[in-house]
Amino acid sequence: MSRIRRHTQPGRPGRSRHVRHAALAGTAVLALALTACGGGSGKSAAELKADKTAKISVNLQGDNAKAGEPVKITLADGKLSDVSVSDTKGGKLSGKISADGKTWTSERVTSPATQYKVQVKDDQSRTAEQSFGTEKAAKVNKLNMYPGKGTTVGVAQPISLVFDNPVKNKADIEKHLKVTTSNSTEGSWGWVEDYSGKDRIDWRPKEHWKSGTKVKLDADLNGINSGDGGGWFVRDYDTDFTIGKNQEFKVDLGTKQLSLVQDGKTVKTVPVAAGTPGGEKASWSGKMVLMAKEGTINMTSQSVGLGDAYDKMVDDSMRLTWSGMYMHAAPWNNGNFGVKNNSSGCVGMSKSDADSIYAQAQVGDPVEVTGPGSKGQAKLGNGYGEWNMTYAEWQAKSALHGQQSGQ
Fold first, then answer.
1. How do beta strands 366-370 and 247-252 pair?
2. 12, burial (CB in 10 Å: exposed 0-12, middle 13-18, buried 19+)
3. Start-to-end C-alpha separation, the chain
4. Which is nearest to 68 in space by CA: 293, 260, 227?
5. Which helix (H) or strand (E) holds 302?
6. Residue 130, C-beta contacts closer than 8 angstroms, at least 6 positions apart
7. What strands, in cross-sheet order, belong to the sheet with 151-153?
8. Strand order in the sheet with 159-163
9. Distance (Å, rounded) from C-alpha 84 to C-alpha 117?
10. Comparing C-alpha atoms, which of 149, 172, 363, 366 is closest to residue 250?
């Protein structure tokens, strides 16, 4: 009997139940401790670790994504708190998070042949990263911009952009050009065929600039396609300048006089000899802009299609047209100043008068030529001819119908 009692162990079941209850109690304590450490989530350590990664989708993928597209990032759950889209050149695409916090869309588009890194953080401190690259540009467009940075120019100076390649998407390009002025100057862009035959866009104020105005242009063209035959822009451009003293030059072909007018008052008048009337040697007339002060340059008749008539070093040269009309010193013609127009198209004057005029002249000063004997107005793109148009006519040359103005 004793062996049977020892085999059945009647006292052990009670002890086993006691141990089992203690073990369960210990498990409850451990579970409570894990819950406390986990901030009340009730999830395992593995689950908590997995939660550190946010689930996102990006509209652009791979190494050959489409250029010229905005980046759109969508979060699977939660809300976005911080988004960064940067390129390997140190640039960043700014953007906005939607009202519901689920998506972020860039304000600018992607540039060709660029690697981008997307970094995201949500409202639960989870993070995510993705990378993609854009397609290469088959062709790249560039531009030259006038006036240059930090310059001071006259009251008639337009902003002028001349493109290397044709621009078909004119409205899209124009939308990405922003003019900011210190006094809310009204103005408009207008498309022009440059004298070189290239596409050009100028921004002209409605009226002459006010002296002291500060002007800034931001051409945010990186990632913009100029259209068939033109190619992509792969960088932004900008310039800034200040408007100088309020002055203009008036040339009267009839009286053969040049006057300098400052703040509406004539401060200097000198005798001149302009182009020979009645042919290709006649001067252009109309409203022009002093394009450049070139100083002493070599002028040849061959460069303007007039054969072998002259080849001279000319002082105080001030360019008015791309085709070669200048105001300059012409001491070889002293006997004809104020008497006879007999030059090959330029407005010549004595060396001392030219020195004085050149010293006071500003690039961007308006120059108006009137009187008989001219060959008419130069073409719009042969210099800056926009001041020969009414403001409404100029606005009509905008691809956006003259709706943009300075800010």
1. parallel
2. exposed
3. 110
4. 227
5. none
6. 56, 58, 117, 118
7. 151-153, 237-243, 214-219, 177-181
8. 143-146, 159-163, 199-205, 187-193
9. 8
10. 366
Asked if pLDDT for residue 45 goes beyond 90, the answer is no
> Is the backbone peptide bond immediately before 70 cis, with ω within 30 degrees of 0?
no
Domains in the chain (CATH in brackets) are 56-133 (2.60.40.3780), 143-244 (2.60.40.3710), 247-379 (2.40.440.10)
pLDDT tens readout for residues 72-103: 999 999 999 999 999 998 999 999 999 999 99
| 51 has a pLDDT exceeding 90 | no
- Measured over the CA atoms of residue 38, residue 41, residue 46 and residue 49, the dihedral's sign is negative
354-396, pLDDT tens digit by residue?
Answer: 999 999 999 999 999 999 999 999 999 999 999 999 999 999 9
Q: What are the Cα distances from residue 37, in Å, to 30, 251, 323?
A: 11, 88, 82
Judged against a pLDDT cut of 80, whether residue 322 lies above it is answered with: yes
Calpha distance 259→271 (Å, rounded)? 9
Give the sheet arrangement for strand 115-122, strand by strand: 80-87, 115-122, 127-133
The sign one gets for the Cα dihedral 253, 255, 256, 259 is: negative
Residue 238: both structure tokens together: 């900008």
Neighbour tally for 381: CB within 10 Å: 22
Angle at the Cα of 397 from the Cα atoms of 395 and 399, rounded to 5 degrees: 100
**pLDDT (0 to 100) of residue 9:** 43
**Is a pLDDT exceeding 90 seen at residue 318?**
yes
The per-residue pLDDT for 299 is: 87
Residue 5 has pLDDT above 50, yes or no: no
Q: Hey, what are 328's tokens? A: 């300059």
Which one-letter DSSP state was computed for residue 304?
G
Cα angle vertex 231, ends 380, 137, to 5°?
Answer: 160
Question: What's the mean pLDDT when you consider all of the chain?
Answer: 89
Beta bridge partners of 133: 115
Containing 365, the helix (H) or strand (E) segment is none
Residue 31: pLDDT over 50:
no
Side chain identity at residue 117, one-letter code: K
Look up residue 90 and give its amino acid.
Answer: G
Q: Could you give the CA distance from residue 76 to residue 85 in angstroms, rounded to a whole number? A: 18
Q: How confident is the model at residue 34 (pLDDT cuts 50, 70, 90)?
A: very low
Alpha-carbon span 63 to 82, nearest angstrom? 24
